[in-house]
Each structure stands twice: as C-alpha cells, then as structure tokens.
Amino acid sequence: MGETPAALAFDAVSCTFISKDDPGQRYTAVRDVTLAVGAGEFVSVVGPTGCGKSTLLNMAAGLLTPSSGELHVFGQPLRGVNARAGYMFQSDSLMPWRTAARNVMAGLEFRGVADAAAQADEWLKRVGLGGFGDRYPHQLSGGMRKRVSLAQTLVLDPDIILMDEPFSALDVQTRQLMENEVLDLWAAKKKAVLFITHDLDEAIAMSDRVVVLSAGPASHPIGEFRVDLDRPRDVAEVRATPRFVELHQAIWDVLREEVLKGYRQQLAA
Ligand SMILES: Nc1ncnc2c1ncn2[C@@H]1O[C@H](COP(=O)(O)OP(=O)(O)O)[C@@H](O)[C@H]1O
Ligand SMILES: [Mg+2]
What we know:
Layout: E1 8-18, E2 26-37, E3 42-46, H1 53-61, E4 68-73, E5 76-77, E6 85-88, H2 100-110, H3 116-126, H4 142-154, E7 160-164, H5 172-189, E8 192-197, H6 200-206, E9 209-213, E10 221-226, H7 235-238, H8 242-268
Parallel strand pairs: 3-8, 3-9, 6-7, 7-8
Antiparallel strand pairs: 1-2, 1-4, 4-5, 9-10
Helix pairs in contact: 2-3, 2-4, 3-4, 4-5, 6-8
Adenosine-5'-diphosphate binds next to strand 2 and helix 1.
C-alpha cells in the first residue's frame, strides 16, 4: 500500500506574470514553492502584503496555471478548475440580485441537486442565519454576508477549502466569532484547509501548521511551524496561553524581516 496522497500539493511551483503591454516586462511572484496540505489538515500561509499569497491560492483553485511546476489534488495532476475545492475570497462574492438562500443554493442548482433549497436552509441555520434566507445581500451586515459566503462554500461539501483572507474586512469581535465558527465546522468534517492571511495571530489560532512566505519577488516558504495547541480552541482565549505566545515569538522572528522587506518595496514602488 502506498502513502496516502496529500489533499493538495504544490510541487516546485512558480508563477511569472508577463505584462500584456510589454512582454519583456516579467514579474516572478512565487518561485519553486513546494507545499502540501494533508487530508483533514488546517494549514495557514502567512506573508507580507504582495508576496504572492493570493497567487498561490488562485493556482490551488485552478484559476491560474503555474508557469512551471505542478499541483496535485489527492495525487492527481490538477488540470483546469479544481473541482474538489471550494473557495472563499477576501471580497464578497454574493450575487446581489439573489436572496441569501438562493445565493447558498446556486452551486447546488448548477449541479442539478434536487433538494438544493433544503440543504441551503440547513446551512444557513448552521452559520447562524436561520430565518434570514429571504434577505438580499444589501440587507445583511458585513459579518452576515461572510456567513452566507461560508455557507455557500461549505454547502457543496468540498474536500479542500481555500480561504483568502476571508475575514480581514470584519471588526475584531465579528472576526473572532467567525473564526471560531469556522473551527467548529471544520472539526465536524475535517476537510483540508489552505488558509491565507497576513495576520499571524489568526494563523496560529486556527491552524495545525503555519507556513511563512518570504517577501517577493520569487516568494517561497522560508519557515514552517507545527501548532501543537490543544483543540477545540477558542481563538480569543488561546491567544493568552504561554504556548501561543512562544509560537508567536518564534514565527515572528522569521516573518519580521520579510514584512520589513515587503514594506520597503511598497515604499519604493
Ligand atoms: N495578474 C497579474 N499580473 C501582474 N502582476 C500580478 C498579477 N497578480 C498579482 N501580481 C503581482 O504578484 C505579486 C503577488 O500578488 P498577490 O499574490 O496578490 O499577493 P498577496 O496576496 O500576498 O498580497 C504582487 O507583486 C502583484 O502585484
Ligand atoms: Mg492577496
């Protein structure tokens, strides 16, 4: 019997953007990234703004093809859109002309699932929005819209969940509620999660493993830390534990210089 393949694997993946106006202008965002997320594992990737986090996530979703290297999904080479993955982006991706329930239902309808409405209803309840199914996105708060997005992603029962700074626009309290909710839902189903964030506290509080990316260009993992904090975790409470503080210190030691580099690059740009 062979080893169980990772849910998601980047194998020596690079991505170079070529300017449409001037093909001589190239920018290598990420270079030679090798990184795997096991089935049921929660992995966060942290790195300074502009280092290539979204680029990695877009490649994992199959929305962007690597310039070199390859991705594997449960052992199979990824070609085209990643059908095993559900994703949640930084900005809302709700359809403003559809109610919350019909937003959650959309993917199921597209797949021709018969009881789409009942499943959507069930998921709205699970994310604390029972009774809000008839509301339109503009009638919901930012936190509620995020919950709808979460239900929309999870209702499809993806084996891999890709999240790109999903809660960065929320206030601290709402954000912590959502983080705890995601952890509860994850604990119940144990899907593979690739969670992108620039917030180290969030990364540690949520994850089994934190991967640190270098500042760009040619960003790549420069550190990897196993988070051995007990679960279930409360993201607010866990931050006060000595082990959290220790991990934070160790990871920040690696991340600090990259954040400064990223900051200097932004000033120079
Ligand atoms: N389509 C694109 N064309 C050219 N450059 C891009 C494109 N997408 C991203 N980049 C550049 O690649 C780098 C990484 O971007 P991104 O992955 O969005 O960073 P992050 O998500 O870490 O903030 C940035 O310098 C960005 O300007
Ligand atoms: Mg990004």
